[in-house]
Amino acid sequence: MFTTLFASLAVAASIADGPPPPITVSLSDGGQYSRGEYAQVQFRAAADGYVLLLRADQDGRIRVLFPLDPGDDNFIRGGKTYKVVAPSISTRPVAAG
């Protein structure tokens, strides 16, 4: 199953009464994927900031989805939607957006 540390925070914040969360994360196909199937993650922040998007697989491995390379800038602009496409199991993702 494809999960992110940020997804649960965004969902929990969106359920609570009050202002919208500072960042929202959505998963294609409800976050349920078969081995080798590609998954798409979209995220959007309310304000400019820095994002680290992680994936934890069924074996407990944690991988960085965004930014792709440790040298890449993880600064994002508020109000812009970013997309990351990644296989649900192994290999590195390809970012778009």
Global shape: globular
Give the helix proportion (percent range).
10-25%
Return Rg in Å.
Answer: 13 Å
Order of helices and strands: HEEEEEEEE
Going by helix content, strand content and strand pairing, the class is mainly beta
Topology summary:
Elements: H1 5-15, E1 23-27, E2 38-45, E3 49-50, E4 53-56, E5 62-66, E6 75-76, E7 81-87, E8 94-96
Antiparallel strand pairs: 1-2, 2-7, 3-6, 4-5, 7-8
Give a summary of the structure in a few sentences:
With 97 residues, the protein is mostly beta strands. The chain is built from 1 helix and 8 strands.
Structure overview:
The protein has one helix and eight strands. With 97 residues, the protein is mainly beta. The strands form three sheets. The chain has a four-stranded antiparallel beta sheet. The chain has a two-stranded antiparallel ribbon with strand order 3-6. The N terminus and C terminus are likely disordered.
Write out key terms for the chains shown:
disordered C terminus, about 100 residues, 4-stranded antiparallel β-sheet, mainly beta, 8 strands, disordered N terminus
